[in-house]
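Async update (no meeting this week)

Hi team, since we skipped the sync, here's where things stand on the single-chain job. The sequence we agreed to prioritize is pasted below, unchanged from the tracker. I ran it this morning and attached the output directly underneath so nobody has to dig for it. Comments welcome in thread, and please keep replies under the output.
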Amino acid sequence: MKTEDYILSKRKYVLGFASIFVVAIYILRLFALQMTSEDYKMRADSNALMRRIQFPARGAITDRNGTLLVYNQPAYDIMVVMQEQEGVDTLDLCESLGIDIEWYKRRMAEIKDRSRNPGYSRFTQQLFMSQLSMEEFSNFHEKQFRFPGFYIQKRSIRQYAFPYAAHILGDIGEVNPADIEADEYYRMGDYIGKQGIERSYEKQLRGIKGSEILLRDVHGRIKGRYQDGRFDEQPIPGKNLTLSIDIELQKLGERLMQNKLGSIVAIEPSTGEILCMVTSPTYDPRSMVGRQRGKKHHELSMDPMKPLLNRAIMGTYPPGSTFKTSQALTFLQEGIITKETAYPCSHGFHFGGLKVGCHGHGSPLPLVPAIGTSCNGYFCWGLYHMFNNRQLYHSTQEAMTRWKDYMVSMGFGYTLGVDLPGEKRGMIPNADYYDKAYKGSWSGLTVISISIGQGEVTLTPLQIANLGATIANRGWFITPHIVKEVQDGHIDSLYTQRRRTMVSPEYYEIVCDGMQRAVEAGTCRSAYTTNYVTCGKTGTAQNRGHDHSVFMGFAPREHPQIAIAVYVENGGWGANYGVPLGALMMEQYINGHLSEASEAKAETFANKVINYGDYVR
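Output:
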């Protein structure tokens, strides 16, 4: 074959392959456009059909007695389809909605920003403006025909029936990008629980979205439902929740704590159900509704008294003398003391040059009156003898580890697991902690203050109340929780199982004797009543300023209905605020009301103001 013929033949094949390649590219591109690309399909569908989300009703919330606490009310959002809104008179639109042009431009940019709105599409409805008032809705609805691409979507917003329990109930707000990325259920403009029960039970409360497909004409006007709603999906409402709180008890607690810092927590011992959770200062949950939520939240976050802080589960405090009950139980179980063991107290614990002060009372004392009079010396001696007992423990570190294990079994040092966000664990030190702090050179005397609930020990008010519930149950507790019942469902098994401590029930009876004595002839006398037997323990927690006033107790002694902790920051002696406030709360719950004399006392304490000056916690 000649060279020229060979070259021509080769060119023929090259041109043929090139033609086939080009044709193949066109075929693949056509296939992609017609079969795999959604772009043209979405354009076509958006011209004829519109899919509109149907939002479910969020679950209602009631208290343990069926009183409605949180419900829904109608609201209206303005939605926009970017593909359709070109050419709209923006000045007229802004005037109709009561917004300025800068707000309009900023909002449009936010909608198109995929980092803020990952689910953005120019063919689907996007939230433009949320929660219109009825007046705003009426003004816009009259002129809506002028604004193609803008639609009204009906939904609901939360309404709170009472100005109480803000930290329990929480609130809802617009989702952020992290929420959208974490759960495909959400898209920009949706609402999500931000705090409290609204947050921790979000999946139960939110329900399941539905949708309806609407038919449009060539001018974009809605002509009705596509195929008579054959392809519509009905929304499924969220689950209703029954809380364990008693709103009347919560109301009284918030009233008593006004103009004070601190917390009141009450628990039903037999179930672990939280009857009230008061934190002060607080705020009205009704103020956190609507488009002003962000502004109100900012104002509250800037308040130096920190009204957004749920002190009941986030405040960590020295428990003071309420902690002595846990020490008595530990010493009894370990055989360090018996009920008859007596220790001296000459206005405190003295050892060499070390002194831990105490108020005046008889000496020496056995355990029951030591609890009743809240003797510091007794419990310091108990800890000293435990940490120095070489027949039971090879070293102070081993004794410390054993002590710490008892504390953890009683619910200290770790979060209890309450069904609210943000719970803190408090502090129970261990041997490693002190080894690092004192470079291995420490003894029971070094850490003696932990025996009376001072030093490094801190608890939350919830943990102190749970200590009361555990003593009431003689050695077991159920994890405290706020939700009593979920509609057509079950609460987590964590909130139904008993958790036992390392201490035998017989020793709890001895501690109950001491707590009953405290009420009848000791530091808790203002809690005494002839109607039922009350067990209590005061605490006066040392502080850099005025001492904190603390009370922990339960009633009745047999078949207890309520265990309670009261913590008033800078309130002084436990008997100043803790005991009387705790007694009023127990009376309200057990009797269902306050007597005339107790109501007068409640009014007096409600009007008492503790001046915190420039105090910031």
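Quick observations from my side:
Confidence is low (pLDDT under 50) at residues 38-44.
The two ends are 99 Å apart (CA to CA).
Reply here if anything looks off.
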